[in-house]
Amino acid sequence: MSSVIELDEICLGWRDKMAVRDLSGRFLRGSLTAVVGPNGAGKSTLLRGIMGWVSLLAGRIRFCGRSGDDVAFMPQQGDFDASFPITTREFVAMGAWRRVGPWRGFSFRERDRLEEALAAVGLADFGRRPLATLSGGQLQRALFARLMLHDADIYMLDEPFSALDRATTEDLMALLEAWHAQGKTVIAVLHDLDLVRKHFPQTLLLAGQGVAWGPTEDVLTPENLHLARHLCAGDYL
Amino acid sequence: MNGIEALYLPFAEFGFMRRAMAGAFALSLAAGPLGVFLILRRMSLMGDAMAHAILPGVAVGFLTAGLSITAMTIGGMVTGLVVALLAAAVSRLTPQREDASFAAFYLMSLGVGVLLISLRGGNMELIHVLFGSVLALDDAALMLVSSASSVTLLALAIIYRPLVLECLDPLFLRSESRAGPVVHAVFLMLLVLTLVSGFQVLGTLMVVGIMMLPAAAARFWAISVVGQMAIAAFGGAFSSYVGLLLSYYANVPASPAIILCAGIVYFLSVTFGLQGGLWQAARRAHARSLRLSRNRERDVLGKQ
Amino acid sequence: MKSDKNLAWQPSATRRRLLGWGGLSLGLAAMPARALTREPLPVVATFSILGDMVKEIGGERVQLTTIVGPNMDAHNYEPTPNDAKALLQAKVLVLNGLDFEPWLPRLVQASGFKGKQVLASQGVQVRRMSSEHAHEHHAHGKSEGKPGSAKEANGARGDVDPHAWQDLSNGKIYVQNITEGLSKADPRNAAYYETRANGYLTRMKTLDTEVRAAIASIPPEKRRVISSHDAFGYFGAAYGIEFIPISGLSNEAEASARDLAAIIQAAREADVGGIFIENMGNPALAQQVARETGILMGGTLYADALSPPDQPAATYLGMLSWNAGRLVYVLKQSTAAN
């Protein structure tokens, strides 16, 4: 399998803090990878660094393969303003930005895709509801719907299942697996190691530095987890 | 003069009333929507800060060319943008946050502005710049306000989607396009343009009032962004109309009268607004408690 | 011999007396010369018009400091430390009185001024202002904003019209008062001041005659104008022009729509020949009135202060000449137009 994103001894951070140090490795095309690690391990920072939003202090990040690989990013719920006066449908519709742009109207085809996405996440009746009235779980589903509409090649998700119940998590996990089956590359930051072991073939264990990267059963060993815990100085998985 | 006539006669009789209305109207149409966006971006105090930041530019224009509108406009725009850029630079290059750096720069700017104006004119010139002269709008001022307003509305229409995204989910916008900083810059420029053109009408102190008060009131009547923008625009126009009538009949200065009317409209919106107003909340609470007590009765009766 | 030597060195009694008297007379002769080159009399005038008068009368024998300079607003002036310093060093203070300088009592007290105060308007027949202008002076006081300031205290008594100098016959009284004051403070130069004052008064009389003649050339029923500051009561009464003041449009108070409407209405009804703004008001509002009523904009009339040296009203006589000239010019034009 070819790689889609290659990291070469990268250091990511800000003036006074280095969040990720000396990380090397590659994400394979079409892989389903979990990024795990203790709190403060730099997982979110890694994703944002790959998106180009955090300064690359050293090393290189390479996007290989087809030029114009489309990357879609799902932020955490705290990263955007859910109280903004916008309906759920309008929010999800933003996913079509790449195709519709700032000014073009929504064609019938786009509208159909929008409805499909809403239905796929179980929000078919919620289109008219203001975003602010959605519960945490519903909001997360809306984020998934938006990502669906984007129809990207690479999906990067920052803690997509935090504060969700088991049932919702399983439903949305099915979506990720569907994308994986379609050959898309999925990278997700997660905390729930059972979920990772159950569904994710690849795992990157991060603790400021790369601890282990590869097949999940090889990475999530007690030794590695112990090491990661210590590297992150006292935070627990 | 009967009641209905009282509402339009002053405007029919006096040209200056018509001009004042036209100028304030044009200003409200642009200021309201901008105010809505400022509120949505949690930048409500930025409008006031920016109005003060612009002062030295207006002062320099005033010093070099007297009450020349072109000079003051250009001066104001340049200064506003310089302050915004400096604040952004400081916050980017140092640990200082953007709101703190902006506060520092706009306060410095205000001091410089007051100093410059006092140098030339003395107090009454300062007061004219501070309070504006909505009753003395000449053709040039009207022209400026109208064109600034048109440009602002047009630009808002063009950048509407990216602007909304930039307020709501800037990370998403960043991942989709590089329009983010451009849109931010354009928005700031529109803000400065509206404030500078609004100087002539309401003065530096009050122009922010016509921007923020109707916008703050709008959220009690409309849910969507466009709805709020429309309500803010017409709310401002309505406040201007009533304020001018108040100035006419109650013999009070015009621009504070307009802002006070806007304030009353806000107060009424908080109380009676259909989207989260106090009266409606009280009504709903009352209905809820009635429902609950009725349910309790039914349960009690059912058990018997 | 010893006694002979001593005698040879000592001057004789006669010689001693001669030397003594010679030295004394030389000293006495030197004294008037010193008086001539004595330092000029330091005088402080409260504002530019008084300053001009003092300069005319005192010439180079006075060292003049003016507190409120050309084009500045004496009603709302805020004294600076330099003013206090100049006042302390002065021997004479020339003030207008009639509540024109509400900030002065505090300044005098703060500076520790011990010299002579000359009330220029002493003996002038005082006019009362119209009620509208009284309102305006209340506004002067109120908008200062400092509680308990001298301005606010004087605001309540603001129905006296302080602009007495607008009538040249009052100007004569001013000059006489100032001359007397300077002479009392500096008696050595009294004759000098007297001479200069007489020359000044002559010029004043000539101007007065000219102004009366020029205004007489306009039919009486046309002698009506609107002015943006009620400072011309004395001028109007003396020379026969009716000034309709625009109240609420001057210096501090922001205009209300009603005030503006009232003026436009009055202008429409009153058949005035011109609208004048003084050098300190907000020109935009008066222009609005002109635009709406079609009445000629007369330009600037100088009321409370002289203009800077490069403009026509840089001296007291220049100011009155200019004002009269503009008024006549505009009234003639509107008479011709009708």
Describe the structure.
The complex is a heterotrimer of chains A (237), B (304) and C (338). Chain A has 237 residues and is an alpha/beta fold. Chain A has a single domain, classed as P-loop containing nucleotide triphosphate hydrolases (Rossmann fold), CATH 3.40.50.300. In chain A, 35% of the residues lie in helices and 27% in strands. In chain A, the strands form two sheets. In chain A, strands 5-6-7-3-8-9 form a six-stranded mixed β-sheet, sandwiched between helices. A three-stranded antiparallel β-sheet of chain A has the order 2-1-4, covered by helices on one side. In chain A, a hairpin with a 2-residue loop joins strand 1 (3-14) and strand 2. Chain B has a domain at 14-209: ABC transporter involved in vitamin B12 uptake, BtuC. Chain B has helices spanning 3-13, 15-40, 46-53, 55-65, 69-93, 98-120, 123-131, 139-158, 160-168, 170-176, 179-218, 225-249, 254-272, 278-303. Chain B is globular. The model of chain B has no long low-confidence stretch (mean pLDDT 87). Chain C folds into three domains: 2-36; 41-199, Nitrogenase molybdenum iron protein domain (Rossmann fold), CATH 3.40.50.1980; 218-337, Rossmann fold (3-Layer(aba) Sandwich), CATH 3.40.50.1980. In chain C, strands 2-1-3-4 form a four-stranded parallel β-sheet, with helices on both faces. In chain C, strands 6-5-7-8 form a four-stranded parallel β-sheet, with helices on both faces. In chain C, helix 11 (257-270) crosses helix 12 (283-293). The longest helix of chain C is centred in the middle third of the chain and has 27 residues, at 190-216. In chain C, 49% of the residues are buried. The B-C interface holds B 10, 13-17, 19-20, 67, 122-124, 127-128, 131, 133, 135-138, 244, 247-257 and C 72-73, 76, 143, 251-261, 264, 280-285, 287-289, 291-292.
Our Rg estimate of chain B from Cα atoms comes to 22 Å
Kindly report the average pLDDT value of chain B: 87
Tell me the number of helical segments of chain A per DSSP (H or I, 4 or more residues long).
9
Q: Termini of chain B, distance in Å?
A: 69 Å
| Topology pattern of chain A, helix = H, strand = E | EEEHEEHHHHEHEHEEHH
The major pleated sheet of chain A works out as: 6 strands, mixed
Regarding quaternary structure, what we see is heterotrimer
Assign an overall shape of chain B.
globular
Beta-strand segment tally of chain B: 0
The average pLDDT value of chain A, as a whole number, equals 87
The name of the CATH architecture of chain A is 3-Layer(aba) Sandwich
- Low-confidence runs of at least 5 consecutive residues of chain B: none
Structural class of chain B: mainly alpha
Strands of the largest sheet of chain A, in order across it? Answer: 5-6-7-3-8-9
Q: Largest protein interface?
A: B-C, 32 and 27 residues
Number of helix segments of chain B?
A: 14
